[in-house]
Design goal:
It is built from five helices and no strands. By secondary structure, it is mostly helical. The chain has one domain. About 10% of the residues are buried.
């Protein structure tokens, strides 16, 4: 298979990933408005803001040059699982303390450092999937230097 055909397949796969991500991001508020009651809508709004902030930071700021790389999308599986566990904890906490939203500024203000902490953990986990450039360079220099 030629490099041009392979590049077209990678671009097509990346476009499909962006399409799926866009549908999920844009569809979440519609789901909340259409199917959930008021108390669940408040919780879902927090989950939506948290998710958009965490994955927006990862995809658009931290790993933007790697969006077309396979390792990034493979790393999204454990990131999504970890994030789901964190969001489950957020939902349980909100259900345990029903009047937590009396001060939305304080509630969402407290979420900022927690989102930052989760982004740090997600970046650490994603680092396990990154290809090691130093090891590749070292092996190339050893192979070219020895006869």
């Amino acid at each position: 298979m030629s490099d041009e055909v392979q590049l077209d397949e990678q671009t097509e796969n990346t476009q499909m990933n962006w399409f799926a991500a866009g549908i999920l991001l844009l569809g979440s508020p519609l789901f909340v408005m259409a199917f959930m009651g008021h108390s669940w809508a408040e919780i879902a709004c927090k989950v939506y803001v948290w998710t958009a902030s965490a994955f927006g930071a990862i995809l658009f700021f931290i790993e933007r040059p790697s969006l077309k790389r396979k390792w990034l999308w493979m790393g999204m599986v454990p990131l999504a699982m970890f994030h789901c566990a964190v969001m489950y904890g957020l939902i349980v906490f909100n259900l345990a303390v029903p009047k937590i939203d009396r001060f939305p500024v304080a509630t969402y203000g407290a979420m900022v450092p927690l989102v930052g902490l989760e982004v740090g953990v997600l970046e650490l986990v994603l680092g396990w999937f990154k290809p090691a450039k130093r090891k590749e360079r070292a092996s190339r220099s050893e192979s070219s230097g020895s006869f």
